[in-house]
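Incident log, structure service

09:12 report received: a user says their structure output differs between two submissions of the same chain.
09:20 pulled the input from the user's history:
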Amino acid sequence: MDVLTKEQRRKNMQAIKCKDTKDEVLLAKTLWRLGYRYRKNDKRIFGKPDLTFTKHKLAVFVDSEYFHGKDWDTEKYRINTNRDFWWKKIEGNIKRDMQVNNELTEKGWKVLRFWSKEIKKNLATCVEKIEQFKLKKSTMH
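09:34 re-ran on a clean worker, output below:
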């Protein structure tokens, strides 16, 4: 049983963003301050990665734990409301994420995926993983 009314739940769900989430913005702004230049949600790249470093063929995704199914085999049983819908939706997202990874990899791209909480808790580690691709920093004059 949902603790919110249908109207409250509807408004809650409408407020969820698919791009420019707090964690995505945090990562992007940190990289920008460090001198790394990227494109955001580039429609020309399959899967519209959150951040793309085109020269280096690096695609970065920031995934929410809930909508992208972190620890799905155990967490799916915590969903008690509208279970059929959410299981189908999240399993579809997981499948699509794998397809995007495969397609980009086949085209010579490197794909990095970070969980939202991973960015919150270990931003420096996430930045280091991106820096391992030996990106060149922009020199500003």
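09:41 both user submissions now match this output. Likely a transient worker issue. Closing.
09:42 reviewer note: The two ends are 59 Å apart (CA to CA). The longest helix spans residues 83-106.
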